[in-house]
Amino acid sequence: MPDHPGDHTHRPDRPIRVLLADDHHLVRTGFRVILEIEDDIEVVGEAANGERAVSMTRALRPDVVLMDVEMPEVDGLEATRRISADPDQPGPAVLILTTFDRDDYLFAALRAGASGFLLKNGTPEALVEAIRVVARGDGLLAPELTRRVIATFARQGGTSGGVIDPEAALRELTPREREVLVLIAGGASNAEIAGTLHLGEATVKSHVSRVLAKLELRDRVQAVVFAYEQGVVRPGG
């Protein structure tokens, strides 16, 4: 198990290992062509259904699983749940990539433990950057999916995971860490947090890591949901 949530991030001294999970062979081939151009990304395997994605994840230990939603036998959402809940591995980051811009898929993906959610109508550059982002341990949502959607997810009874006693954990945050949590919930990047709080990016990264560790959250997506659930921020606030 990782030392603390977020420690599933890949080491920077080797390429990001990616598993492709999609039931269309041509789609997987296209993704492979896009990704293998990049020096820092390596495609380690392909799965044509969710069951295979789960078993290949256990065998290959990728850093990122690029997961389609609608697949035969076991769909991508159930596969994501199984991968995220596997006690024998810290787990890769699961990046959901789907044709369908549906809130219910987004909510289900977040509940299942996905670290990111992208639509297939994006650019190759956006896909590559998304893989790098979730491999670093950050969460990512497509630009089309606004904070309102995250707030709605929280109000509908979603769960971020996290500590058993969230109120006690929140009290353990320093004032600065609470400020960082609020800015994360607002969708701010590390660079934007640094500019707002007049801190260096390395300092911000340390604050973010401590926030995730204290709240026992996997990544920034979970931190956003947690902040809404616990009333740290309010929809529209």
From TrEMBL:
Among the GO molecular function terms of this UniProt record, one is: DNA binding
User: Boundaries of each Response regulatory domain copy?
Assistant: 17-135
Q: Please name the InterPro entries in this protein's record.
A: CheY-like_superfamily (IPR011006), NreC/VraR/RcsB-like_REC (IPR058245), Sig_transdc_resp-reg_C-effctor (IPR016032), Sig_transdc_resp-reg_receiver (IPR001789), Tscrpt_reg_LuxR_C (IPR000792), WalR-like (IPR039420)
Q: Which UniProt keywords apply?
A: DNA-binding, Phosphoprotein, Transcription, Transcription regulation
Question: Among the record's GO biological process terms, what is one?
Answer: regulation of DNA-templated transcription
Instruction: Say yes or no: keyword Cytoplasm present.
Output: no
Q: Which Pfam families match?
A: GerE, Response_reg
Can you tell which superkingdom this protein's organism belongs to? Bacteria
Q: Which residues carry this modification: 4-aspartylphosphate?
A: 68
**Ranges where the HTH luxR-type domain occurs:** 166-231
Q: Does the keyword Transferase apply?
A: no
Known SUPFAM superfamilies for this protein? C-terminal effector domain of the bipartite response regulators (SSF46894), CheY-like (SSF52172)
Transmembrane intervals? none
Recorded protein name is: Response regulator transcription factor
List the top taxonomic levels of the source: Bacteria, Bacillati, Actinomycetota, Actinomycetes, Micromonosporales
